[in-house]
Specification:
16% strand; five-stranded parallel sheet; Rossmann fold; 18 helices; single chain
Length: 437
């Protein structure tokens, strides 16, 4: 059984799993409970050698699993988010890497006790960095070599593939505050926000509009907005953003690498210091990437209503939005509302030119679409063919999805202007969405 409020955190030794979870528990005591790594706890409690006492460890795990299952179910019954450090799939991967047949043979029976989580989070560092951190922390009894870590990682990836799970990967080789912030965002946690304040909030908000229409500014506004006021006034909980532009930009840069190797570009051509798309298959490809990213997010697990997932993209052409929306997964459409940020083509172009910064071409607010590409791809916009009113329902693949069109002219950066503008669109959209939620 998959429980929607049970998340397992995995990662190589010394990546910071225990430290991150301890901080989460300290600063979000009303929201969650932490279960430490079972294997490490048993090794310490019974005085076992992690590498030599493998058969005793297997028996200790078997004895402890019923209690661990009961702990998880008790935490969930109390209405808390349960964060568990590591899991038996990790220990199985280590067992293969260490040649521990006792645990490999016992695993199928032991797995019957495992409570299946809503999601796996992986804090990622390289094996070499793991070893450096292990040496620095001075816990020789638990140190694992690069060779074992490399083999374990391969085995763990195979386990996830066979298990049908896909971890949410978080880069652990960054400053601690950045890693912690990323984990909090993925979990939809915000300091000081009560669960009851998040009840009246969107699950998934599809944020659409021409390039430079104001989508990124919309996200910036709510990133800095107080969490409780944002939820109460705009129905947006602590949120995670999925944006297909960084994926597209990476493919452009991949083309640069192919070109530098005297190979043909695959997806794009250079155009006035930027890029133009040459393969129209990129657009459905990006929707496929969005579907995959949303499916991997714990915020979309059934009944896990701790946050809002904002999915941002632009489309153009005679059937651009019709094709894109029809390609979104039913799981997205059933839980989504659509906010279209409306500006004219000429206003989109004006803002597109104004925000371009040659010195920071990778910045999310400083990229620019060439005029030729703007006219070709975004000169025609089929949104108003789909949405003939400013508020209503779109019937997409048998699913009614509420939408609102928000005029975003004249341009403003004043929160006193933007707050009411966003509220006028989001409040009626939320009421319509709530009727079908």
């Amino acid at each position: 059984m998959t429980d929607p409020k049970h998340i397992v955190v995995e990662g190589l030794p010394a990546v910071g799993k225990s430290e991150i979870l301890a901080l989460l528990e300290r600063f979000h005591p009303r929201s969650l409970r932490i279960l430490p790594e079972l294997v490490k706890d048993l090794v310490t409690r019974h005085g076992l050698d992690l590498f030599r006492d493998r058969e005793q460890l297997t028996q200790a795990i078997a004895d402890a699993l019923p209690e661990r299952e009961a702990q998880i179910r008790s935490i969930l019954a109390e209405g808390h988010l349960c964060l568990e450090e590591s899991h038996l799939g990790v220990h199985l991967a280590y067992a293969h890497a260490l040649g521990d047949t006792s645990f490999v043979d016992a695993y199928p029976a032991l797995a019957e006790w495992v409570v299946e989580p809503a999601a796996y989070f992986r804090l990622r560092i390289d094996p070499e960095e793991s070893v450096r951190r292990q040496i620095a922390r001075g816990t020789a009894a638990f140190e694992v070599s690069v060779d074992v870590l490399t083999e374990m990682s391969t085995r763990l990836d195979r386990w996830h593939a066979a298990h049908g799970s896909s971890p949410v990967v978080i880069d652990g080789d960054r400053p601690p505050a950045d890693v912690l912030t990323d984990v909090e965002r993925q979990l939809g946690l915000r300091y000081g926000v009560r669960a009851e304040d998040l009840v009246e909030t969107f699950d998934i908000l599809l944020l659409l509009g021409r390039p430079a229409s104001g989508k990124s500014e919309f996200i910036d506004f709510f990133t800095s907005a107080p969490a409780q006021g944002r939820a109460a006034e705009h129905h947006i909980a602590p949120f995670v953003v999925i944006d297909d532009f960084p994926i597209l930009w990476e493919l452009f840069e991949d083309d640069d690498l192919w070109e530098a190797l005297d190979r043909p570009r695959l997806y794009s051509r250079k155009c006035n210091g930027n890029y133009a798309v040459t393969d129209p298959g990129l657009w459905p490809f990006l929707i496929g990437k969005i579907n995959r990213a949303v499916a991997a997010s714990p915020l979309t697990a059934d009944e896990f209503r701790a946050g809002t997932l904002i999915v941002e993209f632009s489309r153009g052409g005679p059937t651009g939005y019709a094709d894109a929306l029809a390609s979104l997964s039913p799981e997205i459409l059933r839980r989504a509302a659509i906010l279209y940020v409306s500006v004219s083509f000429e206003e989109s172009w004006r803002r597109n030119v104004a925000r371009y910064d040659e010195t920071d071409r990778g910045g999310i607010l400083t990229h620019s679409v060439p005029r030729e590409e703007m006219e070709k791809t975004y000169g025609t916009d089929d949104w108003f063919d789909l949405a003939t009113e400013s508020l209503g329902m779109l019937h997409i693949n048998g699913i009614d999805v509420p939408f609102a069109t928000m005029p975003n002219e004249p341009e403003s950066k004043d929160p006193a202007v933007l707050g009411p503008r966003y509220q006028r669109a989001l409040r009626p959209l939320y009421k319509l969405w709530k009727l079908g939620a």
